């Protein structure tokens, strides 16, 4: 299983885009964007209804892999105003036994009372043992930042002119940007610099690529 070490803490990287913080027993997940599929379908986009269920299946897979005490969403848990996916989300949450927390993202416009009514604890940001948990990327002296928002991806060059755009964990000296967890989210291509590490997601594993 692919892992990385930061400040003597171990983080396991899952192909779904989740990251398990071993010492804290916390599963970190960014940018699920529940509600996005229903939002686009409502406005006429030809997005398969099955894409809604995929997010729940991927969450179940990541949680079952680590059985954490807590799942912390790093923002953009829900993409838009309330729609049919909120009912699915309520049902899914009611079946879970793990603690849930949410660091608010720019798309999380639903009232915090709705989330808190489901037992989800809300934060603007969190600091845990020298780690700063935010939605937007932040730089703060003395803290290592875990964040989302960017939906990081990289371009991998193949034979000839072949190229693949792949989602990734993008690790910098003082920051690690998690990939977007949700389906139908897209990627923003980043250019690695010296000292960066890029962990590419495939359906079965996470691979550290040579830069």
Observed structural traits:
211 residues; globular; alpha/beta; seven-stranded mixed β-sheet
What general form does the structure show? globular
- Low-pLDDT regions: none
**Overall helicity:** 10-25%
Average residue pLDDT: 89
Largest sheet: 9 strands, mixed
Helix and strand pattern: EEEEHHEHEHEEEEEEEEEE
Taking the alpha carbons of the first and last residues, their distance comes to 21 Å
What integer value in Å does the Rg equal? 17 Å
Number of helices: 4
Structural class: alpha/beta
Strands, total number: 16
Strand content: 25-35%
Would you mind describing this structure in some detail?
The chain is of the alpha/beta class. The protein has 4 helices and 16 strands. The chain has helices spanning 36-42, 50-66, 84-94, 112-117, and strands at 3-6, 9-13, 19-21, 26-29, 70-73, 99-103, 120-123, 126-128, 131-133, 144-147, 152-157, 163-172, 175-177, 188-189, 197-201, 206-208. Strands 8, 9, 10, 11, 12, 13, 14, 15 and 16 form a 9-stranded mixed β-sheet that branches. The chain has a 7-stranded mixed β-sheet with strand order 1-2-3-4-5-6-7. It is globular, with a radius of gyration of 17 Å.
């Amino acid at each position: 299983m692919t892992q990385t070490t930061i400040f003597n803490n171990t983080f396991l990287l899952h192909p779904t885009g989740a990251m398990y913080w071993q010492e804290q027993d916390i599963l970190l997940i960014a940018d699920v964007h529940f509600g996005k599929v229903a939002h686009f379908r409502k406005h006429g986009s030809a997005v398969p209804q099955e894409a809604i269920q995929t997010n729940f299946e991927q969450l179940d897979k990541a949680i079952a892999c680590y059985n954490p005490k807590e799942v912390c969403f790093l923002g953009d848990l829900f993409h838009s105003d309330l729609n049919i996916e909120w009912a699915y989300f309520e049902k899914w949450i009611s079946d879970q036994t793990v603690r849930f927390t949410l660091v608010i993202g720019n798309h999380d416009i639903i009232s915090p009372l709705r989330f808190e009514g489901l037992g989800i604890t809300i934060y603007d940001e969190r600091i845990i043992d020298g780690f700063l948990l935010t939605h937007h990327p932040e730089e703060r002296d003395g803290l290592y930042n875990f964040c989302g928002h960017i939906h990081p991806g990289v371009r991998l060059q193949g034979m000839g002119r072949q190229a693949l755009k792949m989602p990734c964990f993008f690790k910098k000296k003082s920051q690690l940007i998690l990939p977007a967890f949700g389906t139908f989210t897209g990627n923003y291509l980043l250019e690695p610099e010296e000292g960066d590490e890029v962990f590419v997601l495939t359906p079965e594993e996470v691979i550290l690529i040579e830069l």
